[in-house]
Amino acid sequence: MSTESQTFTEKYDLLGCIQCGRCTGGCPVTVRADLNVRRFVYDAYYEEKLDELARLAEIWDCTACHTCAVRCPKGLKPLEVLLGLRTMIIESGKVEPTVRDALQSVLLEGNPWEKSRAARSDWMEGLDVKIAEPGVPVENLFFVCCTIAYDPRVKSIARNIVGLLNKSGVDYAFLDESETCCGSEVFTLGEEGLFEMLVEDNTELLNEYTAKRLVCLSPHCFTTYKTRYPDLKAEVIHYTQLLVELLEEGKLNWKGDLQKTIVYHDPCYLGKQSNVYDEPRTLLKNIPGVKMVEFERSRERSLCCEGGGGKMWVESESKKERLAETRIKDAKALEADIVAVACPFCVLTLEDAMKSLGYEEEMRVAEIMELLGEFVEA
Amino acid sequence: MGNILVLAEHRQGALRDISYEMMALAPKLAEDMGCEVTVLLVGSKMDDLAKKMAAYGSKVLVVDDPLFENFNAEKYQKVLSALIDDLKPAVVMTGQTAQGVDFIPALAVEKNLPLVAEAISLEYANGTLKATRQLYSGKVNATVAFKPADTYLVTIREGVVEPPDAAADGAVEKVDSPLKDDLTYRSFVEYIEAEVGDVDITQSDTLVAVGRGLKEDKNLSIIEELAQAIRADIAGSRAATDAGWIPHDRQVGTSGKSVKPKLYIAMGISGAFQHVAGMKGAKTVVAINKDPEAPIFTVADYAIVDDMFKVVPKLIEKLKELKG
Question: Which phi and psi (to 5°) does residue A145 adopt?
């Protein structure tokens, strides 16, 4: 997108900043990288400095967790200054091959994982899934997410919810191979043009299905559709919100007895960015035999796992401990048996950290839907 | 018919391999076309390089001028443009290299001449010049015919032919530089050398990759021994680079490098989707992992379910045996 009509200062409301520093003070990434977001907001005011700022490696350290935006007393979004600088780099074409390939894959195949569009609904194999048809009204239209659709580790999130939906009798439908990336990571990688195109195409596609609600399985898609798709007709919700409704209507029947201590990790995109804190906890609490504990840093103060902000395609230069490892160590100190999350990226980063720390024998990282798949009655 | 003009490429005082490789293709084509090969060298203080190129038996034209001390696409285009007018060559041949592709397309547009890029071979029959080039990552060879023109432009892929043996000495002739004044639109800044000892794993034919299963630094020695035995480079998963066992620039995966070796041996790597995405271009995948459920086995051509520390010494032993 051209910013001709708007200067960088206007676009990110840089003059609104009072340089209080709460953004940098709260930024989880500062623990392991030299990222000072307040400084960027200050320096970006000088247009002649922008090129130099855009070349600093730390602009790629931001995970777009939005802690800075949550804490800003002026209601600004300091992180978006960093994304704006990424856009400058993207537009100049000087981009890491990994980022280039992911963006090209979104353009050509509708997902950032360089997978074929034709394989997008392979996760449904062997399941009785209701497929949406344009013009046929449906209460709950599901949006799976590229990562859940293609990464075998997290496919079960989608597979398990299908089983649960079929039992509960709710009116639902899934998209077929036409489902296309929501652009969450495209936006945070700074490819504004491609993101605008996705917003246009997806709005047109999703509005064709006369759905009352768009139910997202990933918090990344959820927040992106909720906040960056102004013309979407359906109400956008996260699947945990739908499941709590079912729970309250008595449509979830529990089985078994877990007898485990669970700590819930708030995904940034679900918590900080969309204020969904209670529903995941309600679901977990209701699994028979569960003892819930809380991280010291939870809810609005939750520690980011570093999975978002395009970080699946960019490494930090920092060699310091990954935040996901810090998080797993905290869980260990709480004597948690299970670290439960409600986000596919959190599963991948936290599970990797758990393995790196050598805790795989005594601890488990699980998405809520994986656990519900095991503990909801047929 | 004019001659085949081969633009010899050089950098920092040394000829590039592609210059010799083109001398394997050009003479045969000249024979078919009934013309001769002329080598063109553009640079400053070119005497030594001119002698080296002349050893392949063809005439060498040298444009020797301090203005050409460093490669500059803009200047090369001017020189080639003037020499095409003067010499009317039948073919202008350059490497499909960073230098070649920097000016050949612009030259083709300027002179309105047909260009085939990245040819792997050329043939001339019944008045038509044809070039073979590869499509779909080398899965398909396509032969394309040039539309008739006075001069054909072609770039040659690097490393497709062996350089020929030197033949009789050819003549060296200096020609005046068609460029009288310096051009300032683009200027040379500096050479940035890759760090010595760095291996670019994206270019490796054989890779031995280790993951979390390596357990500790000191276990790397046996992996190095295996790598040496099969002339492989060593790479790692994110876990292995995080642990500091393998340098970060050798990380394979969506946040590291995408590799496409002929052989990829994954050891102690579970095969997370994000790692597999970085090595899916490998032709043959051998996976060694203790866990039979490890997802790496779903992409492996050969699967060994066992402790890598038991398997690797046996492999090395066997390799030594085979090599006698």
Answer: 105, 140
**Among B158, B174, B190, which residue terminates a domain?**
B174
Q: Which residues of B touch A32 (CB under 8 A)?
A: none
Which range is least confidently modeled, A216-230, A234-248, B199-213? Answer: B199-213
A194 SS3 class: helix
B70/B11 same-domain check: yes
Residues B132 and B271 in one domain: no
Residue A34 domain boundaries: 8-92
For residue A311, which residues of chain B lie inside 8 Å, CB to CB?
255
In B, residues 250-309, which contact A (CB 8 Å cutoff)?
A: 251, 254-258, 270, 272-274, 277, 280, 295, 298
What's the CATH number where B92 sits? 3.40.50.620
Say if residue B281's pLDDT is above 60.
yes
- Cβ distance B277 to A153 less than 8 Å, yes or no, reads no
Give per-residue pLDDT as tens, A345-370: 999 999 999 999 999 999 999 999 99
Instruction: Name the domain count of chain A.
Output: 3
Whether the predicted pLDDT of A3 surpasses 50: no
> What domain range includes position B302?
201-323
Spell out which residues of chain B touch residue A315, defining contact as CB-CB under 8 Å. Answer: 238, 248, 251, 255-256
Of B130, B158, B174, the last residue of a domain is B174
Site from B216, B251, B254, B257 to mutate, A interface, most A CB atoms within 10 angstroms:
B254
